Amino acid sequence: MSTSLTVSQLAKQLEISADTVRHYVRSGLISPERDPENGYKRFKGEDIKRLHFILQAKSLGFSLADIQTIMDQASHGESPCPQVRVIMEARLKETAAKIAAMQATYKQMQDAMQRWQTQPDCTPTGEHICHLIEGFSHQADNFKQEGCCHE
Amino acid sequence: MSTSLTVSQLAKQLEISADTVRHYVRSGLISPERDPENGYKRFKGEDIKRLHFILQAKSLGFSLADIQTIMDQASHGESPCPQVRVIMEARLKETAAKIAAMQATYKQMQDAMQRWQTQPDCTPTGEHICHLIEGFSHQADNFKQEGCCHE
DNA sequence: CTTGACCTGTGTGTTACTCACAGCTTTATA
DNA sequence: TATAAAGCTGTGAGTAACACACAGGTCAAG
Ligand SMILES: [Zn+2]
Ligand SMILES: [Zn+2]
Ligand SMILES: [Zn+2]
Ligand SMILES: [Zn+2]
To answer: Which among B60, B77, B98 is the nearest to A108, CB-wise?
Structure first.
């Protein structure tokens, strides 16, 4: 039948993994009918439309929980747009914060790598585990813990 | 006694949460002695030094699994430096990739928000869940799925 | 001795999947 | 036709790095 698709058929069509499709079903985002003969999931037009929506929303930064909320609201006949705008604003800020944090870490990593370029390998002692890592904070002054392990 | 610290004392001293300290213990990164009287964890010099190392490594982008590996190697008397360099290179690439991906998403989000600025709220129909999200891909052409839900 | 604040260990929840696995179907081969 | 190999299915469990919940233990004040 071309009126309903199996998990892997649907997955292939939307270029996602079958496990991802199953995940959305288990999470309650999609609720396909079941084939009475073997219990297999059978996706029809409605389900495919929902999955399509899910993927679009995900690409815009919405979480699955967000998407669930939006769909629930829409199925109650209420306009989800106001919620969408609110959630989006929050996700936008979150994403900006995450990017900033990761960029900071990235800089730390680069600095360390450069510093390590010229440093020789060490042997761990009771005092030190790895000079590369431990030496970093002394120069970069990340941790101003007074109980710092050495010097 | 000042020779050993409890979970919360140690947490406060290193400015991390007590739960985080407990997490590291449960993960096997630190193995403090136990107070025979009440079973409480008792952190001594060695443990504190290890935790100090963990935090430094974490700030450089190492995962807890990485750190475990490095510490194990060091405790076997082998120099962990070569491993450290290898792992760091991998994490550096990963981080760069993550940042790039997040920035791409961020741009998508911004574009969508701007487009939505002037659009009115909608009412969900059988055809659509939310025009804001569904309308996006038609203009941005994210999903060139031929079975797109409308038009 | 009791009240209350604080602290403890442990069990469970979080995000968005991904993997493992036993079993059923379909296809290919002899 | 028998049978073996390949492929697909649903479900249970695992991942990273903690955060939270909660019953019970500890300690100072009254
Ligand atoms: Zn080293
Ligand atoms: Zn140090
Ligand atoms: Zn809408
Ligand atoms: Zn569409």
So the answer is: B60
Nucleotides of C under 7 A from a protein CB: 7-10, 15-20, 24-25
Q: Which of A2, A52, A93, A134 to mutate to test the interface with B (most CBs of B within 10 A)?
A: A52
Q: Which residue has the tokens 């020789």?
A: A120
Count Cα neighbours of B53 within 13 Å in the Cβ-side half-sphere. Answer: 29
- Does residue A41 sit in helix, strand or coil? strand
What average pLDDT does this structure show over B85-102?
Answer: 96
CA proximity to B137, closest of B122, B147, B126, B123: B147
Question: Does any strand D atom come closer than 7 Å to the Cβ of A22?
Answer: yes
| CATH classification number, B7-114, choose in 2.60.40.10, 1.10.1660.10, 3.40.50.960, 2.60.370.10 | 1.10.1660.10
CA distances from B35 to B9, B39, B45 (A): 15, 5, 16
SS3 A146: coil
Residue with tokens 């300290």: B21
The domains of chain A are located at: 7-114, 119-151
User: pTM for the full model?
Assistant: 0.86
**Residue A47 corresponds to which amino acid?**
D
Model confidence over A81-124: pLDDT tens digits?
999 999 999 999 999 999 999 999 999 999 999 999 988 898 88
The 10s digit of each residue's pLDDT in B99-117 is 999 999 999 999 999 999 9
